[in-house]
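Batch manifest, entry 17 of 40.
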Amino acid sequence: MWHEQSRPDRNSYVTILKNNIVSGKERKFLVRSGVTYGTKYDYGSIMHYSERAFAKNGQKTIIAKQKDYEKTMGQKTGLSFNDIKAINYHYCQKRCSGGLTWSKCRNGGYRNPRSCKRCKCPEEWTGTYCQSPENAATSGCGNKYRYAVSCYRYLNSPGYFVPRNYTTNAECTWKITAPPGKRVRLEFIETFRITCDRRCLDYVEVRYNSFSTTGPRFCCNSRPKRVFTSRSREMLVLFRTNSNSVARGFRARFKYV
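Output type: structure tokens
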């Protein structure tokens, strides 16, 4: 596999600042021909360089054309779903002679080469066809299914309303659904404080475009200013914090449009 920012379609997603690259390392940023196996460009791929990779002056060498993804690039905690999907497709697509077809798998899933009658699902989905969100791993997450109506409803991380700094170790996934023909509108409000790390190890993530591709991630004390509108009638919001450090978390509101 080439690094993600070397994909043939990379110029639609990132800008490479050649003048900031260490001399002799320019080849690491070349566009490479290759097969992507139908996966979408993934800012959260473990094969994606960080924004200052091989910088000679401390400046950025990669700029995400979708600014919200700056904190998503350069993660090294594990393979993304699309990384594994491409590898499985390359090595295992002929392993199943029967079972279900890939077209039956929902939310970006694919036929599981170890169990040909089931789909292999993104980490937030489960079921034979990846049709259901996984159960939230933390009781404080509340209902994993949320429904958008014409007026704002609210969503917040566990412990947000505790009147003191709150130490949390949480793993929440919420699915927000709008009525047929409508889309979900979400924005973050009030205090936003998630443990700060340059790799955004603790984060809130919004998947408003693709459920199988890593969405924009946010951490530290900078509340996202933009409003997110889902491409379909569904949106996923993920909250992950595993450092047992003090954080207030986030509060957001949503409705349909």
